[in-house]
Each structure stands twice: as C-alpha cells, then as structure tokens.
Amino acid sequence: MTMSKNHSDEMRSTASIEHARVLLAYVNYPVTTATYFERVLRRHHQVVTIGPKIDAGLITTWHLENMKLPIHDQNIPSGYEPDMRALWRRLPEELRPDLYLWVESVSGYFPVSLDAIKIPKACYLIDSHLQLDWQVQWAKQFDHVFIAQREYLEAFHAAGNRSVHWLPLGCDPEIHRQATRDKQHDVGFIGSLTTARRVALLNQVKTCFRVAYERSFWVDMADFFAGCRIVFNNAIKNDLNMRVFEVLSTGSFLLTDMAENSGQDTLFHDREELGIYRDKEIRDAVAYYLDQEEERERIAAHGRKIVHAAHTYAHRLEDLLAVALGGKRDTFSAEELRERSVRGVNLASPSCPMPLPVAQVPRRSFVIPVLDMSPASPYNITTLLADLQDVEGDVIVVFNSEEMAARLKGHPRIDYSAVMNHNVGVSRAWNIGIAMSEAPVTFILNADVHIEPEAVDALERGLAILPDAAIVGPQGSFYRFQTLRDILYLDKGATAVPVEVDAVSGFLFAVKTELFARQGLQFDGQFTPCYMEEWDIGLQCHRRGWKCYVVPTTAFDHEWSGSIRALRTIRYMRREETSGQILERNRVLFKQKWERIALEAGTPGLFRTLWPSYVRTLADKLQEQGRRQEAEHLRNDITATFPEEEAVR
User: 187, 222, 413, 534: most buried, per Cβ within 10 A?
Assistant: First the structure.
C-alpha cells in the first residue's frame, strides 16, 4: 500500500503534539468559531485564552441577543490592542506556551508587538471572501497562516505570506447534535438576510412551501436544524460556510448551492451527502426532496456519518497542530479529506468497533437508585417513572432491594435494571447505572424527585454549552475544605444564570458519560451508603480541569431525605448505622483521602473554593450598575475572609 506525503507527515508528527500548550487569542463571545477550538483544546491540551469580550452594543448590532449563553472573561483579559511584548516579559519562562494561535472573531482585535513572542505563531482566518485586503497584510506577522476559504490561497501567497494552508470550518458533534427525528418544518433557514440573492431565493421557495426562519445559536440552532426536512444554504461569494458542516452534523438534509473553488464538490457529493440546487430550479429541487422522503433521509444520514468521520473541530485542530508544531508540510487537501471521511465511515475491525447505528443510540439515560418507596416524601419511584413517561431516553433503575425489584418487575418505563442482593449505597449504584448507559448524557435522579421536561432540557443544554462542564445540576454549593462546611448553598431558584460551584447536589444532576466511561471519573465506593460523594466527585473534576455548574431551572421538586428521615438506622452491605454515624465517618474519610492526594501530588491549591471568584463577579456587576460602595464592600470582605485566595490571584 502506498502512503501519501501528508499521511506520512501526519504519522511522524503525532507524538510531538499530544500535550501542547496553546495561548489562544480571540474576542470572546460564545458563538464565535474560536470557542469550538477552545473546547477541543481543553480536552487534550493546555490552553490559556487571551483577549477582550464582546461588548453589549455589538451584540445588539449583530442581533446576537438569542445566544442565551454566558459571556465570560478570558483567562487573560485584554483590550483590543494589547502589547504582547509587555505580556511576554511578565510571563515566567516555565509558563510560556508552545504556540500562539490568533483566531478571527471581532474586527479591531489586533495585538501589537507580536514579534516579541518567541514561539511559533499561527492565525486562522475565516472570512477571506469578505475581508481579504486586511487579512493578507495582517497574516504576515505569523509563522503559519490557516484560511477557511480555499479560493484565496493564491492571494495570500501573492502578498508575500509563507506557510499558508487551507483549513475548512467544521462541526462540533456535541453541539451540532441530532436532537430529534421529528420534523416540524418543511424548509428551514438560520442565518443573515443581508444579500439580495439569498433573500430572492428564499422568497421563491416561500411562494410554494412553508419556510421557517429563526435567529438562534448553538444547541438551539442545532435543534432547529434537526427538526427540518430540508435546511436551505446559500454561499456568499462562494464561501464554504459553517452551516454546511453544522447541518450535516444534525442529520438533516442540506440543500445548498455549488460554492465554486471552495472544495465543497470534492468533500461532499451531490445526492450522496447533500443536495445541490441551481437558482432557477430551486423550487423544483425543494419539491423533489420533500416528496422523496426515503432518498432524502438516506442522503442526510450518510452526510452525518461523513462529516463526523473527518470534519469535526477536533480533526481541524489536529491538522493545524501537526503543521504548526509537528513538522507536517501541509494540511489535508480536499481529496485527502474525502478519502479520510469515506475511510472513517467504512472502517470496522474487532479492535475498533463501529458505534451503534444512529437510530439505536439513546439521546440520554436516566439512572435511578431505588431502595424503597421514599416513605417520608410525597414522591417515589412510581411518580418519577410517570414524570419520565413522555421524556425521551433510557431509564436505568438500580434496585438496592430485591423486594422493590419484584414490586416493579415489568414496569413499561424501565428499559434496563440491575438488582442488588443488599443495599450497596448510592455511589456504587450510580457507577453501575453509568456503566450501563449508552447515551452521551446520563442523568442521575433520586427516586423521590419530581421532574419536568423543562429541567431535563435546561441541564442537558448546560452540559453541552458551558465551558469544560462535566457535571451540572439545579442546586449546589461553595464550601470550605478546612472546616467541611458550606459557605453558601445555592437552593432552588437562587440564581438566574449558570454558576460554577465547588459541588453539585446529588439528588438530581447530569454528567457527560464519556468522562466516566473513558476518562477515569468514578464515584468513590468508600462513601457508602451516602454523604460526601458529591464533594468528592467535585474535587475529582477540579483536579482534572473539568467544572461543575449550577444551572438555573425550577422545573423540579424535591424534599430532602425521602428515605433517610423515615429510618432510624440504615442497613447497607453488612453494616447498620444511623445517618449521623455515617456522616461523621465519611467526613473523616473524605478529608483524609484528599489531604493525602494533595500531599502526594504537591497541589495544595486543590482545595481553594470558588466562592471568592463568585463574589468578585457579583461585585463587578454591582460596579457596572453604579453601586460602587456595595461592590467595594464585597471585595474587602473577600480579601479579609480569604487572604490565602487573594495571595495567589
């Protein structure tokens, strides 16, 4: 078998870029392309972000009000023209990155003195079809230039740029997901309506068919796409835009024009992964694909497989790093990307099993440990199963009682179950249930919870869009490790925005299944049957760079200790104790475990609470509202109460 030059380069460079340190520069707003790069980088590499965040005026000008996402400060906040020479001098040598990566985001963000950064510098330019004049000049400051629009490679070379490479846009399968197979709209479109041609084409379609239009983003956008029989796309100056990859990723049929010289015709074939229209015949094309449902859905399903096999942002970042840091001569050509996508779809071997067919992959799973009928609560396992009757997802019940298993045998809403001879506690039951889950998102619920679909959607959305989220729930806390006491507990309805917390409450939360299946998270069985397991998993996440969030929702109800309050003692494994005895023992075990880990790893900062950061955010908001004295009081209080936290800021 012969091997292409690019493939050979790729094989040689992989080892050198496994754990890159990247300084990622962009203007932060949640739906810009750089956020997808950041998500991938944080999974496998070390990343520090630098730059300003978008201002409120631009959000209005660009009609971004429906983002529904928090806008966070970068790790290193800056203005639009930061002096990189001054920053580089202040940065200790041991903290300096391997790569500086500037990604096009908001116009006007142009750091100065880039020549002072003595590491490889790369830029990623997206809108060359609209911004070519300044881009070909700005790019000259970088060692490697990556552009999303292939047609303009020669223009960059002609302007004197070296090491210029085509790197098309892509998709993020976690965000651009296939959330539903129910089609509510015949034809749908999300995007700007600023070009006469695009408006005219949509107007043509509207004369004969129902066209749905939204201005939405991220998972809202993906859910809209997934609900369309046909999604319309129209290139501006032959750009290969984000919509092409994002629609294909959601499993819906894409009807697009032919973007000449963009690489589209090589990457994706007409009537194989998408459909191509000609302007004068667009109504005929829509009519055909609405009528030919089987063909349309077959094409869409194949398009989803192809785009996931070679066109995710993880693929793009791997290629970029291989060139910028690994010595690879060039990024993949359109022909090589096509070959990789087809090979990825067809690949199957015992050592690399194919994933479940899309139709068999559950959207989510619900894991419910059950000991009894929650006698101290108005809710129990039967009411919870009724709540979940019309909610999509696998229900996995881990019975900690053979009696309860017999009582609910054959219940129509239980998809899978495991029966324990004895009460093994919640930690072990959660681990068993997560191990049985085949869905990307797993919900953990106490049997004494009442939950509504809105809460499921809110938690699932938070897990998908919040930075580095591993666990999300509607309630949680900040606590101080030294005293093992809560500083603040965020109860139901306590916040209107997502808040990063030290620990999420264990009666209802959602996790990314892969972090348990492949990344080493696990609930510690020594805290059986209950207590301290939430704080423990929070520290496990913090140690690995993942985060826990409280997500605002009130679409649930829960009364504490639906079983424990009705029991004088708790039987578990071969033991029997009061709840007070269990709590005291597990507090001691928790502190001993993590003090040992911190000592062995040399990471005393592991125990720093997020409370000071939360209070500083509140103070900043008060400052913006003109309430300066209140803001200063909060800052002074944090400095006095947590001097050890302020010392390391």
Answer: 222
